[in-house]
Amino acid sequence: MSSTHGDYLHEPKGWRSWLFTLDHKRIGVLYFWSTLAAFVLGGILAMLIRMELLTPKSDLLPADTYNKVFTLHGAIMIFLFIIPAIPAAFGNFVLPLMLGAKDVAFPRLNLASYYLYVAGTLILLGGILGGGIDTGWTFYTPYSSTTGGTVSLMVFGVFVLGFSSIFTGINFIATIHKLRAPGMNWFRLPLFAWGTYATAIIQVMATPVLGITLLLLIMERVFRIGIFDPKLGGDPVLFQHFFWFYSHPAVYIMILPGMAIISEVIPVFSRKTIFGYKAIAYSSLAIALISFLVWGHHMFISGQSQLASAVFSFLTFLVAIPSGIKIWNWLATMYKGSIKLDAPMIYAVMFLALFAIGGLTGLFLGALSTDVHLTDTYFVVAHFHYVMVGGTFIAYLAGVHYWWPKMFGRMYSEKMARLAGALVFIGFNLTFLSQFLMGSRGMPRRYASYVQDFQPMHVLSTVGSWILALGLFLILGYLLVSLRKKPDAPANPWGGATLEWETPSPPPPHNFDRTPVPTHGPYDYDREPALV
Amino acid sequence: MSETTTTTTHSPFLQHHYAEMEQQVDAGKIGMWLFLVTEILLFGGLFVGFAIMSGQHHDAFRLAHEHLSRPLGALNTVILLVSSFTMVMAVHSARHSRQKALVRCLAATIALAGAFLVVKYFEYSHKFHDGLLPGRFYAAGGPEPAGQAMFFSFYFMMTGLHGLHILGGMIVLTWLLVRSRRGHFSSAYYAPVDLGGLYWHLVDMIWIYLFPLLYLIG
After folding, report:
1. B144 lies in which domain range?
2. Percent of chain B at pLDDT above 90?
3. CB of B14 less than 8 A from some CB of A
4. DSSP characters for A263-289?
5. ipTM of the complex
6. Which residues of chain A have a CB within 8 Å of the CB of B192?
7. For residue A433, how many other CB atoms are within 10 A of its CB?
8. pTM score, two decimals?
């Protein structure tokens, strides 16, 4: 209980203390760097895809290599980066601090979850070294059950990663229920905690179904059990049902934590109490609930019954309601606030614009008649990237810039951050707006070659990807540079009112010198005017 | 640090990040129930797959299920039901600090779990001998061999996954046994026995659904 001067990064010392750490902050940091490495790998593959598509002919990569590259890009980005990145890195680091807790409910399970992540990653990488797969990240049968390559191994890797995700989810639910500081009632929870809670519910309820589906796929390959193969009396559409029963809710595992970050950043940098706290909190739960009822909208052309398609289409539109509630509440929070455009807020505003485009184009795909035309075109690719990159990844960047001082005790160059933000915004829109246009004109996805007419758009898109990559490397650069500086981050650089800002940056190993007792809501800027 | 002195009895099993034992036990219960939910969903995929495929291959599944031994299946059902009872008694003994009874009940539960696996071993080897194997290894012939092969795929996947859970349960129960011999559990602290019991009952319950589904329904 000695009041150590060391922070969690330096206390205790030695590499063992990192490898066997039970400290949620360290596990969060381990997750942060691991998922970031996965992102760089997935990003390099994305750049390869864009390079290949610079010209209409398949010249840089042979067609079957191209198939492997886009498969791996998808699998790595989804299973190794975007699903774990926000919950497992920031959730682990920030959530217990926000609750005023000393740790998550099950620290050993937390470490186990990290090592399962590492194991799953190594298995995936082993599969890549063994030749890779060309099934697309969706592993559709019967192609995936008959094609060559290391499908079984890679699928097993994803199975292992699923357990990592489940353990994180179980941990967070128990933590939020049982480890809130005295006085931290449910409606004093920061909205990040609500978002994490809704995410965790999906992680726990959906991931096991993916697990069994992947096991069945492995069995199909090894034993030819026939469940998904029409030649053997099985049903390939059943695989799609199983797969999307997880994978649709999974896109909310990806977006809800992003929305949760935005709900933190906007009130802090608008210096205003959040508008519609309860509406935002409940809309996260509503999204989690509805997410389980809409999987069939991935299968409008699969041959499922028309009645099912119509019902799924209708339910899909329901998602727009809680999403819209969030957007309007964020805007209402900003209205007449004293907005400060520091780096986190720049990304939050970017999120609002890009997620709005991503969300609205989703309506085209949720509507039966337009979806039939747009299925498997670049329109879908663009929509997905507007939601996942323009939405989740931009929110992730907001989170990185928001909590970086807390995690590492350093401030980064604000000037560079603005420059990089501009590059990211321009690069991203150039890359993916062009894909909406191509897609609506019939450019199919997953092809290494295409007709000449699409080339100008593809060139725009590829050039955009270079600008985007430049911006991202710039971010990585100034963040790493900031680590070499002297510690200079104050405890509360942004004037946040949530509890993680009440402890030094970086926090001591035991989080708080005394258990904090919140006496006001997390965004009470009306009662307590700007703290800085 | 002054506020840590408020707790009167400081259990050696209280983890540092909890203020009091009740909080820790409640968190454990939440965690275990969530885990059980994931288990039900994991098996749920197999049950749904079985239901759909048995609808599409109704006659083949009916023929194939005649190969299963109802007496052995029934015997295993009884074994697991009794093991659930001994598990309940283990929790009951721990709650009332009856050390010896706790150890005996846990040992009995482990023994019954082992007996279940032995019976399963005989059932499996009989199936292997007759060529009643999953998927492409099915060699028993008969009408609609593809459908029958699929039935045995499900039979082995479902009972196999369940068997792995029995094995996992035996490991957990052995760990509990070791700890109870060291006298860790009493009315003041028996949460691990309680949680282990919850898991064990779920494993039993899955079998209660598997038995009629595979052995009885034609």
Report:
1. 21-216
2. 89
3. no
4. HHHHHHHHTSPPTTHHHHHHHHHHHHH
5. 0.93
6. none
7. 17
8. 0.94
